[in-house]
Amino acid sequence: MSSSLRARLTVVGMTVAMLASLMVIAAATVLALPNRHANTNKVSLCHATHSTTNPYVLITIDPAAIIKRGHDLHHNKSPNGTVLRPERTFWDLVNPSAQNDWDDIIPSFDWSYFGNPDGNSGTYPGKNWDGPKWNVDRVGAYAHLLELCFGSDEPGPEAHLDVSKTAVASFKRTHDWSIDKSVDRNSLWVPVGGSETVYYEVEVTYDGYTDSDHRVSGTITIKNDGDLDATITDIVDEIDGDPVATDCDDDLPITLPKGHTLECDYDVAYGDDGTNEVVVTATFVDVEDPVDFDADAPFTFGAPTTQVNASVDVYDTPQGGSGTKLGTLSASGFDEGDTHTFGPYPKTFNHPGVANCQDLVYNNTADVRSGTTVLDSDSESVSVNFQCGIGETATGRGLPWSATKKAPSTWFMYSEWSQISTTGVDIVAGQHHVIGRITGTRGSGANATTLVIDLNANAYFANVAHNVKIQPMSCTNNQNYVQPGAFTVKRTATANVIDQSITVSGLANTACYAIHLDVFRLEPAP
Predict the structure, then answer these.
(1) pLDDT at 374 > cutoff 50
(2) Which of 396, 424, 367, 405 is nearest to 513 (CA)?
(3) Considering the entire predicted model, what is its pTM?
(4) Is pLDDT above 90 for 493?
(5) Contacts of range 19-27, beta carbons closer than 8 Å, 24 or more positions apart
(6) Which residue segments constitute the domains of the chain, with CATH numbers given?
(7) Is 152 helix (H, G, I), strand (E, B) or coil?
C-alpha cells in the first residue's frame, strides 16, 4: 500500500468516490490476507483509539488478555456485562455522520490457556474480522483496514510490551546431630607405683534435618519494544492466586519510553511448588483503553539453596587439655538415625607418687560442632582413687610406759636391746599396724650401738624435720615418759619413699631405747 493511500484511509472526511475506489482495489484481496497469528503464545490485533488521524494501533498481547480480560468486550460491555452502546466498526470511522468511536479488530486464532483451572482450549472466532457482519459494499474498505493494521507494507504503530519474569525457589536445610560419650569404668583404684587405663567411645547420631525459610524470588522485566511510549499503571503479581509485592524502585504509574526497560524485583515467603504470574497494565499515547501484558514462570523447590551443619567436626576435650579432633562427618553419607562411633581410645592414669598423692575426679567431654558452634556435647567422669598414706606415729615394739610415773595413758612403748640385737622388734604404727623392723649391732667401747630402722613397702617417712627420734635409756619401770621434744638423738630419713631405711650409729650402750617415728602408712586397697 502506498503512503498516499495509507494517509487517505486515516482521514475521517473521506468522500464516497474515494471510498468506492478503495473497495474496488481491496475486494479481490480480502480472503487472501496472510494469517500472521498461528503462534498462540501471542496475538496481534488492531486496537481502537479515539484518534481520527491514527484510529488504530497494532498491539501484540497474550490470548488471555483477549479471552479473559476484555479486548473481546471493548466498547461493548461494562465489567458487569451491561451493554453500553451499539458496536462501532470501521465503517463508522469513514462515515462522516458516525461518532468517532469504533471497535478492536481481532483475528481468529486457536488458543490453549493452561492457567485456566479447567486447562481448556479452543478457537477464538475473531472480531470485526470477516464478512458475515459486513455487506458486500463494505468488504473492500474493511480489507484495506486489515491491511493497514496487519500488512507488512508500512505497518501502523505498534503498542507492545515484552514482559518476562524469573522465579527462583529457595529454602534452608538445617541438619541435626547428637553425641553420646561412654567409658568402660567410672571408678579406679591406682596403687602406689602403678597405673590404670580406661577406654572411651564417642557415638554421633544423625538426627535428620529441618527445612525452613521457603521463599520465591525473581525479577519482572518489562521492555517497551513497541513504537509508542507507555505508562505502566498497574503490576499484579500472584502465586497461585496469592498477591506478591513487587519493588520497581519507583511508585506507579511509571513512564516507560519506547526502547526502555523496567525491572521489578520480588521476594516472598512461599512453601509449595507453583507458578508465578504477572499481569502488567499499561496505557499508550493515542490508545483509549489500558492494555494488559502477562508472563508466568513455574518454580519447584528442589535441592536446598542453603545448608546448615551439613558437615560437622567431632572433638574430644580432656580435663585441663585442649580439644582433639576425632574426625569430620558429612550429612550426605547419613540417613536419619544412622550413627558413627569413634574409639575405643584409652586414657591411662599413673600414680603421681606419695608426695603428690590426691584423689581425682577426671572429666572428659566430647562435642560435635559446626565451625565454632557446638551443636551437642556429652561428658563422662572417672573417679580416680590414688593409694595414699595415712599419717601415723610409730614406735618399736617393747615394754609399755608406766601409767603411774609421770606417763600419760598411752600405747607408746620402749624397746629392749636384748630383743633388738637378736630377733629385732616390729615397728608399730597406730597401735596395731606393723610397718617394718628395727635391728641393731653394738661394738666395743662406749656409744658403740647402731640401730637400723627399716620401713616395709606399706609405709614411708613423713616429710618433716627430725622424722626419726631416739632416746637411749634404762629399762626401769619408774622413769619419766620421754616427751617428743625431749629426745636427745634426732635424725631425718628420706621422706616420701616407699620401703626406705635409715641407720643411726653412735648411740649410747643402754638396755632399752625409746624410738619415735613420723610416718605415713599406706591405705589398704578397697
Answers:
(1) yes
(2) 396
(3) 0.64
(4) yes
(5) 19/94, 19/141, 22/140, 22/141, 22/144, 23/137, 23/138, 23/139, 23/140, 23/141, 24/140, 25/140, 25/144, 26/139, 26/140, 26/141, 26/142, 26/143, 26/144, 26/147, 27/139, 27/140, 27/143
(6) 3-156 (no CATH), 163-171+211-299 (2.60.40.1230), 174-209+308-385 (2.60.40.10), 390-522 (no CATH)
(7) coil
